[in-house]
């Protein structure tokens, strides 16, 4: 079942409760369709041209679509799979950029989720790479991110990753460049933060990249790394934080 993607500006109170709405909506669909173990498949919102909505609104909705886990299935949304579509933005779509005309890629990504979640096919990659551990290397001015699976760095980007840097009780998000990378990890150059680094996020914007040109994908499945955000829980240099379950 596909969730509608009509982009209507949400009031703050509704937007803030979206994680609960997503999980309740999931349960309601199951009751309506008499589903007990089958999977539901909401595609994540695609991209919107700048100016259509505030730059922070659409990423928050994408995040809330996963009940604030960053991935499905999860504890709030079991037996659910999702097609990440933020890299399919269609500037010239007659239906609006949030409605890309490439339905084949959306269907391909959903069918992988159906095979893995609904039909229980083991060892099948149906999600893009998710951060698994982060390591603060303050003496080197780096934040190292290890992923749950192999990554393919399609291009290096100096804006798609951001860090929250706090100084004198004020925090702001700063874009940071990708530094080095390997088959399952990458490092961010965080030297621009002269205060305390408290969080990082990826692809937290209405239009993260052009069509299939986001920086991170899984090498064999070509699934994009989804938008993600996490707090850095310990500021001790060399400390490892687990950020994805």
Automatic annotation (TrEMBL):
Regions crossing the membrane: none
Molecular function terms from GO: sialate O-acetylesterase activity
GO biological process, one term: carbohydrate metabolic process
PANTHER family xrefs: SIALATE O-ACETYLESTERASE
Protein name: Sialic acid acetylesterase
Native source species: Rousettus aegyptiacus
